[in-house]
Design goal:
The complex is a heterodimer. By secondary structure, chain A is an alpha+beta fold. Chain A is built from 24 helices and 24 strands. The chains are: A alpha+beta, B mainly alpha.
């Protein structure tokens, strides 16, 4: 109710009178509805859009109705001419002002355009608000994966849900001109594109029944594949494409809209629905639900749960509860903290820049008090002088904004082209209308704010001070000056601490123990399901590949694994230990599970802490063994050896595995804890994975070895596709790239903030001290010693500096609390760093005040008194 | 009203209002546009466009009854005038005429 009150008042202020009843009758009521539908953040974004919309549309109309159509422009034109003449009169100050403003407004526009593109703009799907990701929650874990059995049941039975769809990213081999190439594939449900609201460009999507094993094989092409491989040929429909050795009929071409939540697919195939009980259980599919606006997401999730319970859908684990998360939230959620961090940093730079400008304008206006007095004496009214100040500030700000936006357009373009994968959503155009509106509003607001300060200062110089000349600063002047210095200190400090924390976090990430050697090469191969349908086929192929690699000259170690560290999150399974009390069904603890070959730990350089690793016949009948990681040992056998105990990673039917060794922990994800992990022999794995990685260590350089590996792989397994050949150090670098860019960006912003802050504080403090020359002379004439006077002046100047430092330090500590969860290894405001930073800024202020203070104290009191 | 052509946005607003028949108030028009396209215009944009169209005689408006909700105020309902329908038809015909021959038929 309270909120609606201020919203009504705000709207009445913005909207022209004759319309305001209409607007007030709709917007606040709609806000309530939007909040229910999109949550608090979504509603805030919506509200900001509406207010900005009405500011842009309504304010000019209101001004026009208040002043009349022509009156306003006539009235301003003269002021603008005077303002331009003035600015040209002091080119250095004007250039400094415009440059500072360009920096602030340009940076803010860039940051906003990234925020807008990543977080605010709706997904490019029809009715995107109605789309939800179906997550499964169980015992504090939450995954965006559900099982085929659940999806089938929901599609058939769930009421109040207008569509259910699913997808899974994978790979396949395309045969083009006789050679197998690797292709990324998205496997989706019939009607998928219709449910997610991305109609095809051409043809049709998969029909019901095409997802059943044995149906005529069909394929939908990604738009870019159609463009590049088929030259936009509209007659592509009906032609055949050989995928995994089987000719598929092309039935459609997807829309060009990027669907970032899918992998970067080249072709789309129907996801074949498994019929066996066991394969229906795996939670491997991304589920999507379209829910009409009239149904609350919680209600729909309860309905999904009800269907699960009613149908008794088979699942490996009990106790999964479906939860619906808006699809956009699911996609952009993870990048929100980084984007907001950058936005906050840029905002701080903008504040420091603005304070500098205000400071400069303030000083300039002080200096022009004589001029103001003359104009006052000649009959100018304070309101006119005030208006003059505002117009001048607006002219300045507009100039700064134009320069800033133009420079930023280049800058952001460069930044994004150098790091295209950093953010999840494509940034199409920086000069999006909304971004333009934002910079316009920002410019206007900044201009008016500056104008008020300089206009106010200027218009105060009326007759009273005429003749007395501006001498010792008055109370108003001192207070404004002190407030500016304090605020600038505070913002610069927060900014620096923010930058310091990111750099600290990057250092922590880079120095974090990875557990593997960086010099191995990794060959990833895709083994298509039609050629290598079973686990044994896949393991045989991998064995063959390993032998071929081992025979290459210079190779000293070869091993294969289901997923290599630092590239993917790895596989997950149960961690059940035989000698411990057995968990209740549905409450089995989980952890990482990887399938590894003999020689893997040696090739990857993972240290063996206890026992042994896999040998040639491990995994065969009677040799059911497992190796556990250090973290897993700590979790289940903190004070004894696990060797000889038995473990399993699935239901009892999958058998117990005897622990034969303990190996060191290996980091799979940047910035996360070492996860307990179990390694099982490849023949004891979950099933066919369609992808395997072979790790090769050699005495050769990467440049020599990589081509040989690629060739050998293609010769050994002609119908498998080589996905990539990469060094472990390259993989780790790639994983760290976002953190590195973030640190560079924030350090840059921190440096700019420090520079601006130091210049601003120096300028204001020295100006204020210099203005006290007369007072110093007076004190000296009355018998004060030079030291006393200097101390007194410096102390006075430092008071606002220290106040600002205290506020900034408090802000920095608060910031530390916020980034704690976002930045790995960054401790909330390190006291040593904080003290050092405060030290830098305070010494700038001491220097700034000391020089003019000493100068004044050294001078002859008589001369000092004469100084104006 | 004049014979001027309709802007792209004006067409969206008019078509949405037409679909809503006599239930076309600003929020409903936005909703209708959002449901059928990938855009969500602001309240200000749609309201100002409707009032501009009203000035041109392409839309009429009247206040509806106050709603029963707490603090419910009467909403302004808009109705598309026949002249607008004529203009919409003309825009559509012109566009289709220009499109013909540029697309394979049936897709």
């Amino acid at each position: 109710m309270n909120e609606a009150g201020w919203l009504v008042r705000l709207l009445r202020l913005l909207v022209p009178h004759e319309w305001s009843d209409d607007v007030v009758s709709e917007v606040p009521q709609e806000l309530v509805r939007v909040r229910l539908r999109r949550g608090r953040i979504g509603a805030t974004v919506w509200l900001i859009r509406q207010v900005v919309g009405w500011t842009i549309a309504g304010v000019p109309l209101r001004l026009r109705s208040a002043f009349g159509r022509g009156a306003l422009s006539d009235f301003m034109r003269g002021d603008v001419r005077v303002a331009v003449r003035r600015l040209r009169g002091s080119p250095i100050v004007s250039t400094a002002l415009v440059a500072t403003l360009a920096l602030g407004i340009g940076g803010m526009t860039a940051a906003f355009s990234i925020t807008d593109a990543v977080l605010l703009r709706p997904l490019p799907l029809m009715g995107a608000d109605e789309l939800f990701a179906i997550r499964g929650d169980r015992q504090g874990q939450s995954w965006w994966f559900v099982s085929a059995g659940e999806l089938q049941a929901w599609k058939e039975d769930a009421r109040g849900v207008s569509g259910i769809a699913w997808s899974a990213s994978g790979s396949a081999t395309l045969t083009v001109g006789g050679a197998a190439t690797y292709a990324r594939v998205e496997r989706v449900s019939p009607g998928f594109f219709d449910v997610i609201g991305a109609p095809l460009s051409l043809g049709r999507e998969f029909r019901q029944g095409e997802d059943i094993a044995g149906a005529a094989p069909v394929v939908v092409l990604a738009h870019h594949v159609w463009r590049t491989r088929y030259d936009d040929d509209p007659n592509v429909l009906g032609r055949a494409m050989v995928i995994d050795g089987v000719p598929h009929t092309i039935v459609g071409v997807a829309s060009p809209t990027p669907l970032d939540f899918l992998g970067r697919y080249e072709v789309v195939l129907p996801r074949t629905m498994p019929t066996g009980q066991l394969s229906q259980r795996g939670r491997v599919l991304r589920g999507y639900a379209r829910i009409p606006e009239s149904v609350a997401p919680e209600e729909a999730a309860r309905e999904l749960h009800r269907v699960m319970e009613a149908r008794d859908v088979p699942s490996f684990d009990q106790g999964w509860v479906p939860r619906l998360v808006p699809l956009k939230e699911e996609i952009v959620g993870p990048s929100r903290p980084i984007v907001l961090l950058v936005l906050g940093a840029v905002f701080s730079v903008m504040m420091v820049a603005s304070l500098n400008v205000i400071g400069l304008l303030f000083v300039q206006a002080q200096g022009r008090r004589t001029e103001a007095s003359v104009r006052w004496a000649l009959g100018a009214r304070p309101a006119w002088l005030f208006r003059q100040g505002i117009v001048e500030a607006l002219v300045l700000t507009t100039l700064g904004a134009v320069v800033g936006v133009v420079l930023t357009t280049w800058g952001v373009g460069m930044l994004l082209s150098s790091a295209p994968d950093l953010l999840p959503r494509t940034i199409e155009a920086l000069l999006h209308p909304r971004v333009m509106a934002f910079s316009a509003a920002l410019t206007l607001a900044t201009g008016v704010l500056f104008g008020v300060v300089s206009g106010w200062t200027f218009s105060r110089g009326r007759g009273a001070s005429f003749g007395t000349r501006a001498a010792t600063p008055g109370r108003y002047e001192r207070r404004v000056g002190a407030a500016l210095v304090a605020a600038e200190m505070a913002f610069a400090l927060i900014l620096l601490v923010g930058a310091g924390l990111t750099v600290q976090s990057l250092a922590a990430l880079e120095s974090a123990e990875t557990g593997f050697r960086a010099d191995a090469l990794v060959v990833e191969v895709a083994l298509s399901g039609s050629r290598y349908p079973t686990l044994d086929d896949e393991v045989d192929a991998t064995d063959e590949l390993r032998r071929a690699f081992a025979a290459l000259p210079g190779v000293v170690g070869v091993g294969s694994v289901s997923s290599v560290p630092m590239r993917r999150t790895g596989f997950t399974g149960w961690h059940v230990v035989e000698s411990l009390p057995q968990p209740m069904p549905g409450e089995e603890p989980t952890g990482g599970v990887e399938m590894a070959s003999p020689g893997y730990f040696d090739a990857q350089g993972i240290a063996v802490l206890e026992g042994r690793t896999f040998e040639a016949l491990d995994g065969d009948e009677g040799r059911a063994v497992a190796v556990v990681s250090h973290a897993m040992k700590q979790r289940f056998w903190p004070d004894r050896s696990p060797i000889g105990d038995r473990v399993r990673y699935g239901p009892t039917s999958m058998g117990w595995l005897e622990v034969v060794g303990v190996v060191d922990d290996v980091r799979y994800e940047v910035g996360s804890e070492m996860r307990p992990r179990m390694y099982v022999p490849e023949r004891r794995g979950f099933g066919a994975l369609t992808r395997r990685s072979v790790v090769v260590r050699s005495s050769l350089s990467d440049a020599e070895l990589a081509p040989a590996l690629r060739r050998t792989a293609m010769e050994t397994l002609p119908d498998a596709a080589v996905v990539s050949v990469e060094s472990m150090s390259g993989i780790a670098d790639e994983a760290l790239a976002p953190a590195r860019l973030q640190a560079v960006l924030l350090t840059l912003l921190g440096a700019v903030g420090l520079g601006l802050g130091a210049v601003g504080v120096y300028g204001l403090v020295s100006y204020q001290v210099a203005r006290r020359t007369r007072e110093v002379g007076l004190r000296l004439a009355l018998g004060a010693t030079r030291l006393d006077v200097t101390k007194r002046v410096v102390r006075g100047a430092l008071r606002p500096v220290l106040l600002g430092a205290a506020v900034g330090a408090a802000g920095a500590v608060a910031l530390g609390g916020v980034v704690d969860g976002v930045l790995y290894g960054a401790r909330a405001a390190d006291p040593v760093v904080l003290t050092a930073l405060v030290g830098i800024l305070v010494s700038v202020a001491v220097l700034a005040s000391l020089a003019p203070a000493v100068r004044a104290a050294r001078s002859d009191p008589g001369r000092a008194l004469a100084v104006e | 009203m004049g014979g001027d052509n309709l802007g792209d946005f004006e067409q969206l607003v008019l078509l949405a209002a037409l679909r809503l028949d006599d239930a076309a108030y600003t929020v409903a028009v936005i909703e209708e546009i959002r449901r059928h396209t990938s855009r969500e215009p602001t309240h200000a944009a749609v309201y100002v466009a409707l009032r501009r169209l009203e000035k041109k005689g392409l839309v009429t408006s009247e206040l509806g009854p106050a709603t029963a909700e707490r603090g419910g105020r009467p909403k302004r309902f808009f109705r598309v005038a026949p002249a607008a329908v004529t203009l919409l038809r003309r825009s559509r015909d012109e566009l289709l005429a220009l499109w013909s021959g540029l697309e394979p038929s049936g897709s």
